[in-house]
Design brief:
Elements lengths: L1 H8 L1 H20 L8 H9 L2 H9 L6 H29 L5 H5 L1 H7 L16 H12 L10 H25 L10 H8 L1 H20 L4 H12 L16 E7 L10 E2 L2 E2 L2 H8 L2 E3 L2 E2 L6 H11 L9 H4 L8 H6 L4 E5 L9 H8 L3 E3 L11 E2 L2 E2 L1 H14 L4 E6 L24 H26 L6 E7 L9 H8 L5 H6 L5 E4 L8 E2 L3 E2 L3 H8 L21 E3 L5 E3 L2 E4 L2 E4 L12 H19 L9
Parallel strand pairs: 1-10, 1-11, 4-13, 5-14, 6-7, 6-10
Antiparallel strand pairs: 2-3, 4-12, 8-9, 11-12, 15-16, 16-17, 17-18
Helix pairs in contact: 2-4, 2-5, 2-8, 3-9, 4-9, 5-8, 10-11, 18-19
Bound molecules: (2R)-2,3-dihydroxypropyl phosphate and manganese (II) ion (MN).
Length: about 625
Amino acid sequence: MKERFASSKYFVLLFTVGLLWIKTYALYRMEFSIEMNSLLEQFNLLINPLATLLLIVGTAFLFTSKRRRGWLLFVSIAYTLVLYANVLYFRAFSDFITIPVLLMTNNAADLGSSFFALLHIYDVLFFADVAVIAWLLYKKKVNVSFVFKKPDLRKYYAIVASVFIFNLALAEMQMPWLLTKTFDREIMVKNLGTVNYHVHDAFMSSKTLMQRAFANGSELDEITNYVNANDVDPSEDMQGMIEGKNVVYISMESMHRFVINKKVNGEEVTPFLNDLIQDSLYFSNFYSQVGQGKTSDSEFLVENSLYPLPRGSAFVTHADNQFRAVPEIVGEHGYHSAVFHANDATFWNRNIVYDSLGYDEFFDIESYDVNENNQVGWGLKDVDFVEQTVPYLKEMQQPFYTKLITLTNHFPFELDPQDQLIDPLETSSETVNNYFPTVRYTDKAIETFIQKMKDADLYENTVFILYGDHYGIPEFNYNGLEDLRGEEITPFDHVKLQRVPLIIHIPGYTDNRTIDNVTGQIDLKPTLLNMMGIANDDLSFGHDIFSDENQPLTILRDGSFITDEVLYTKGVCYDAESGEEIEASHCEPYSKKVEQELSYSDKIIYGDLLRFKDE
Ligand code: GP9
Ligand code: MN
C-alpha cells in the first residue's frame, strides 16, 4: 500500500511532463519544419524540452496541495499557449516570435484579416492533452497530495540541472558558437527548446531596451560635431559619375584578399576576378571591419557607414532602430532596391532588418528552386544562385540598387567533386585545403553572373561592386596558412588577413587602376553616394575613398587600426609596410580618435540616436 502510494505520487508530475513533451516534439517535427542534419541533432531536438518541463511543472509542488491542481493546469495551459502562438507565427512568417517582434505593432497589422486563415481545424488537438490533464486533476481527482521535502527538492533540481547541462553540452558540441552567436532562431529552438529560447530573447531585449530608454537627443549633437569636424570633401572627379545607372553589389562570402592573383599548384585561384580587375578600380588595401555579426556586420557597415557592435550582431539586437541606410536614400532618388540571398529569410534577422534599411524586396530561399542536385554545404550553389537571380533582375524596375550575397564559399568549404575546378591543397589544415577550390568555384559563379547580365542586356547600364564580406580562414586553422607561406602568422599578419578584395567595375570606364590606400567597408556608403551624385548628409563614419583630402585611418572592431604608416594591434605598434615593431609614440596620436569613434558609433546604435535626428 505504502509502495503504491509512493509510486503514484510522482504519477501526475511525470504524466503531465510526458504529455507536454510528446506534444512539443510533435510540433517541432510537424509545424516548425526544422532542418535535421545529423542523428545527434535529432536526439537533441527530442530531449531539449525535458529540463524546462521538469522545472516548470515541478513548481506545482512548491504550492500547498489545495492550490496544486490549479497551478498544474495553469502551467500546462500557459506552456501550450506559448507553443501555439509560435505555431501561428511560424505559419505566417516561417519564424519564431521575438520580443522586438511582439512589440512591433506593424507586424501584427500585417497579419490582420489573414489571422483566421492561420487556424486549422486540427489545432484543437494541441489542447487535447490539456483536457486530459484537467480531467485527471478534477474528474479523476488523481493524487497530488505529496510535498517535496527539502532533500527531495534538492535532488529534483539536481536532476533538472543535469538534464539541462547535458542538453547544452550536446548543443555546444554541434554548434560551438551557439551562445555567442544567437542570431539564428531555428538553431536556438532546435538546440535549447522553445522556452529557453524565449527566456534568452527576453533577457537580451530588456538589456538593450534599457540602454535605449536612457538615451536622449543631446548625445547626438556631440557626435554630429565630431563627424563634421572629421568630414572630407568628396572627390569632384567621381561625383555623379554613375548617376542613374543600376548598382549591383556582390558580397563574396569569406573571400580573403590574398586569393587575388594567387596561384596554387600552378593554377590561378580567381582567374575571372584577376581579369576583371584589369578593367576595374581595384582596392588592394581594403579591410573587412566586421565583429561577431560576420556577414550581417559587413552589410551593416556597407549600408550605414556605422561600426558593427562589440558583441553580437546589430542586425539581431537593433533591427528596429531608426537608420538612414543607402537603400532608403537611393529610394528617394527613384531607385528600386532588392537583396538576393538563397538562405532562410530569418538568418541574421534579415527579414526584419531589410525593412528598417529601406529595402523594397528580399529574394530569399523561397524565391529559388533548391533541390538535391543544386545544393551543397549551406544551400543553393552559387552558380545556380546567380543563374536564377538574373531573370528577377531582368524583370526589375530600373534603375535598381541590389545586392547578391554568395554562400558556397562558407566554412567548412564543401564542394561536389564535379565543381572542383582546382585540386584541394595539401597543408596540415583540411579547412585551408578545401578553401581554395570553393573560392575558385565562386569565381566561376561571378563569371557566370556577368555573362548572364550581358545576355540579358543589363550589363552596360550597371555598375558592379564586388567585395569580400570577411576572412575565410579562422585563426584555429592558421597552421595551414603557415604551411603555405612557410612562416609564422603574427598578430600583424592577422590584421592584414582581414583584407578582402574590393572591385568597382564600371562598364565603359577608362581610368581603371589599382588603389593602394588603406580603406574599409565603412567607406563604401559615402563613396557610392558621391559616385551616384547623391549628397551624403548623414552621420557616416566612413569617407569617400576617392577624396584627395582623405587621410587613411581604418579602424577594426577590436580596436586595431591601420594607416598608411602604422598598424596597431593588441597593444603593439608596427610599421604598416615592413611589419616591424616600432615605438608606441607612432601609434599614440590615433589611439584616442579610434576609441572615440567606436564609442560614438556604439552610442548611436545602443541609444537608437538617429531617431532624434530630425528633432
Ligand atoms: C548566411 C550567410 C553566412 O546567410 O550570410 O553568414 P556568416 O556565417 O558568414 O556570417
Ligand atoms: Mn559571411
